[in-house]
Amino acid sequence: MSWFWWILIFFWVGGFAWTQDTVRKALRKRHKRKLALLKATTQRQLAIEAAHKPPEPVCGCTHHLAKHDKRGRCHERVEVPTAWDEKKKPLHYEAGQCNCQQYVGPQPLSQVYAEELTDRWPTGPTTTEEPPTR
Known about the structure:
It comes from Streptomyces durocortorensis. Helices cover 37% and strands 12% of the residues. By secondary structure, the chain is an alpha+beta fold. The longest helix is centred in the N-terminal third of the chain and has 37 residues, at 15-51.
């Protein structure tokens, strides 16, 4: 029955609160570590997926190549500032056309032709026919 008194003294002194606080801290730290591990795994997966994508042909105006015509003129609508404050920061915007003139992104390869590279030369018998005589 002496063990009962030791447990009772442990609770009176506040040992249960200390134990509970320690367990809560440990669980909170474990939860934060699990969330960080999950976030790192998600970022890793997104980076792997992004690495396997082909590059997008994007102009200097950040619009896709499909928004440009044959002459290089962009047909996308953008917000154009119309009023500024005393610090030269735009206050009002209106819809306008992108004034980009030329596509400057990576050129997509249409078709590439390369001859075979070999070290062999024709080694067959050479024919030296004489021209017919009259």
